[in-house]
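Structure request: Sulfurtransferase, Pseudoduganella guangdongensis.
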Amino acid sequence: MQHITAPELADWLNNDSRAKPFLLDVRENWEYETCHIAGSTLMPMQTIPARIDDLDEDAEIVCICHHGARSLNVAAFLEHHGFSKVSNLTGGIHAWAVQVDSAMPKY
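Returned structure:
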């Protein structure tokens, strides 16, 4: 598993010469509705085991949660199930709001 910072992810998303990652937001619905990174897909943590077949094993996946703990667990789970291109957003959506998008609501 890789770890990626909010500024590194922002650079990746803004780099048109590089394929965009699949942004997997593992928070709860209310959290996602409060704030999220554009283009991310909501799949709450507890739904991952039942929905693992909905994910592309070959895709570059960045797991996102509030502060990075839940997404770290999901990234480890995915890696254990054969996903080899998984990254965890260090500091989660909170780090994104602080370091990249200061207009994003914080909770």
